[in-house]
Design brief:
Length: 752
């Protein structure tokens, strides 16, 4: 069994003729049934690029007599000395076709090319027979034809249905491409082939001490069509091209071995792409995705580099071929893979991250699933769902943080990392608008500083400025309050805060349990209780937002609690005033706060109405719109309740007409009234009292009940039936409930 073959380079010809160093000749090569069809000749845009690069590299090597090595070929040699390739089938088949073409094009004698008859496919009879017929002395191609495939299809031995064999159709397409590339430059190339211009390493699988699992690993890489083989060949060619004085040859060979062994083992647990199918036993796509992540990091961190293509082959060529920084880039990639070796990756992420906070371990960072960010990158990095990244920018920052930590464990303790990764996750959660690709250089720089120093680097924009200031404040505070670290973490973990605790503040950290009990209550009651104390509404563009009473719209609370340091002050005062009223909150406690407010209130501003009437709180996004003339001020009673988060053109209601409408229909279900759903555009600016052929509306200080009177020309004019002033203070605040006044006015109409 070829005892020396693993230490030598082989050419395609050597495999069949043996080598001078003692490598024994094979009796044949047979592509096994478990392998995929020949893919490098497929008619697909991605494959066309792969074909162009690979055949182009072979041509360059032969024409310029510049030897090229195509990496390892793995396989098993059976008792008949037939090689069953497990990895390298695509390259071997392309070499088979290239040798056939050059031999026939240059008129090589039959005895020299007879070895080609020993190359066969076990996948299908048609593919096996096609290879046999192609190399037969009976077929001599006409190289004057533009497409050799047309001539081959015309041969008597070529049945029509063979064209449906994917391997044969791919071979025909590759033959045509080789013809285009070599037809006008095919002189003395056979001699170059015999001289070893194109070579590869061959390793018999048994010499590796292979288990059945390793056999499957090697074979699995060949099943689906991936970019792996071509990226690997391009990358290794780039590595070999690096000046040996800069990168020793043994270092380059070490990286090749890691790619085939260590890094394959690293990615092997993620071979199943979450489909549950054995057909998905591949690691190639996982390698490509993680390699993309690492190369993206290189571009982000080097301001002099400009990424001109998203094609991974072009990226590899850009970073590693002819670049002065190629060794530096290569070292980064190597460390980016090596740092995960001998690490229990699942345990690592579960040590610091969780999807569900627990009281027993509050210092774990609460993140969205999945917790294993490395695995997620292997499955989804670079993939899109429409315009949405399946692996968001925030996840890239988080993965880089773990990458940096693993490479600096000698200077960052486990305890330090636990606190510092929490700072980073807090910043990620609170930096929706800052997490952009063009901001990645700053985000990574800040991440590195936090991991190295445990504090914020000031002086430039990276994450959200308000959260950066808060994280710095926490870092300073913890130096003298280390005993309260668990309490701080628990407060940060609350789903409505997500790391931003400034609405409570470090000076009231002992209110953490109270805050938890408060928001374990009915959120609608929380909203009403807060409004009972003061105006905590958040101005969002031209709209005002209060907290939603529905758990499905908790984003409203998060927006309010994470506002700027300046804007948070009144919200904080109101929340602390409520939290000060009880050590533990229940719905009954909140209801008593609300009842006291309603009982003692004598002036009815907008807060009173929202606290009193459920109909004025849709329990959705909590968005309200005041009079257009004063969009940033809550003046008067022209208040629209929005059914949407941002667009005023969506469903919206005049809150007073909505409350009146709902109360009337509750007490008188059959009453003929109606209210439109688009008050902003006019459809809903009045309550139609169809039972009396009238309509009702409010101004800031009056109630009107009117009807339309037609004139002789068919036009209508408004006739006022009831004009009722609403008692108010000098400042224009209601002294009587306008909904109650209107309710009584409608009842009077009903009794007429």
């Amino acid at each position: 069994m070829m005892n020396t073959i693993d230490s030598k380079k082989y050419t395609f010809i050597d495999l069949f003729r043996g080598t001078e160093g003692g490598g024994e000749a094979l009796n044949g090569i047979e592509i096994p049934l478990i392998q995929r069809d020949y893919a490098q000749g497929r008619d697909m845009p991605k494959v066309e690029d792969i074909r162009r690069r690979f055949v182009g590299a072979l041509k360059k090597a032969l024409i310029n007599n510049e030897p090229i090595t195509l990496d390892f070929v793995y396989g098993e040699i059976d008792n008949n000395r037939t090689l069953i390739p497990l990895d390298g089938q695509q390259r071997l088949t392309t070499l088979f076709l290239l040798h056939w073409y050059i031999a026939r094009r240059e008129g090589v004698s039959e005895d020299k090319l007879a070895f080609l008859t020993k190359y066969s496919y076990a996948t299908r009879y048609s593919a096996r027979e096609f290879c046999k017929r192609l190399v037969s002395p009976d077929y001599q191609p006409d190289f004057n034809r533009d497409r050799l495939s047309d001539e081959i299809k015309d041969q008597s031995w070529m049945p029509l249905d063979w064209e449906n064999d994917p391997t044969i159709s791919a071979m025909l397409r590759m033959i045509d491409y080789i013809h285009v590339m070599f037809n006008n430059s095919c002189n003395n190339l056979w001699r170059c082939l015999e001289a070893g211009c194109i070579s590869f390493y061959f390793l018999p699988i048994k010499q590796l001490g292979a288990t059945d699992e390793l056999y499957i690993k090697m074979n699995s890489r060949g099943k689906p069509l991936t970019e792996f083989e071509n990226v690997k060949a391009e990358w290794e060619a780039c590595i070999k091209a690096i000046d040996p004085s800069i990168m020793p040859k043994q270092d380059a060979e070490q990286i090749e071995q890691k790619l085939d062994l260590d890094w394959t083992d690293l990615l092997w647990p993620y071979r199943n792409g979450q489909t549950g199918s054995s057909a998905d036993d591949v690691v190639d796509d996982k390698f490509i995705r993680y390699l993309r992540f690492l190369t993206d990091i290189i571009y982000y961190k080097d301001e002099e580099l400009k990424k001109n293509s998203s094609d991974i082959l072009s990226i590899v060529e850009d970073l590693f071929r002819g670049s002065e920084k190629a060794p530096e880039h290569l070292e980064f990639i190597e460390r980016g893979f090596d740092c995960w070796l001998h690490v229990d990756i699942e345990h690592l992420f579960n040590t610091y991250l969780t999807t569900t906070p627990t009281a027993s371990d509050p210092q774990k960072c609460v993140v969205a699933a999945p917790v294993n960010v490395f695995a997620q990158a292997c499955y989804t990095y670079g993939d899109m769902n429409g315009r949405t990244r399946l692996f968001p920018i925030g996840r890239s920052v988080m993965l880089y943080a773990f990458l940096y930590y693993l490479q600096h464990k000698e200077t960052i303790s486990d305890i330090q990392f636990a606190r510092r990764i929490r700072i980073i996750t807090n910043l990620i959660k609170q930096s929706e608008y800052e997490l952009r690709e063009d901001n990645m250089p700053n985000l990574l720089r800040q991440t590195e500083y936090i991991l190295a120093h445990g504090d914020i680097e000031e002086g430039y924009l990276s994450f959200n400025a308000n959260q950066l200031a808060e994280e710095h404040e926490k870092a300073v505070w913890l130096q003298t309050h280390a005993d309260k670290a668990d309490t701080l973490c628990r407060l940060e973990n609350h789903p409505l805060l997500q790391g931003a605790i400034r609405v409570i503040g470090l000076d009231h950290i002992d209110f953490t349990d109270r805050f938890y009990s408060l928001f374990a209550c009915d959120h609608s009651l929380v909203n009403r209780a807060l409004l009972s104390i003061g105006d905590y509404a958040l101005l969002v563009n031209n709209r005002f937002q209060i907290g939603s009473g529905s758990a499905d719209f908790d984003s409203s609370w998060r927006a309010i609690f994470s506002t700027s340091q300046q804007g948070i002050a009144p919200k904080k005062d109101i929340l602390l005033a409520l939290l000060s009223q009880s050590r533990h909150f229940t719905n009954d406690v909140l209801q008593s706060v609300i009842d006291r407010y309603l009982r003692e209130t004598r002036e009815y501003d907008w807060r009173h109405y929202l606290v009193k009437y459920d109909a004025m709180r849709p329990e959705r996004y909590g968005m309200y719109f005041w009079d257009e003339e004063n969009p940033h001020e809550k003046r008067g009673y022209s208040i629209l309740m929005m059914w949407t988060e941002k667009s005023i053109s969506g469903r919206n209601y005049n809150i007073f007409l909505k409350a009146l409408n709902d109360r009337l229909l509750c007490d008188f279900p059959d009453l003929g009234i109606s209210l439109g759903e688009y008050a902003y555009s006019g459809d809903g600016s009045v309550l139609k009292l169809t039972f009396a052929d009238k309509y009702l509306y409010f101004t800031d200080d009056k109630l009107y009940i009117c009807h339309q009177t037609p004139d002789e020309q068919g036009h209508t004019t408004e006739t006022i039936d009831v004009e009722k002033p609403i008692p108010q203070t000098e400042q224009g605040t209601d002294l009587e409930d306008r909904v109650e006044l209107a309710y009584e006015a409608v009842k009077s109409l009903m009794n007429k």
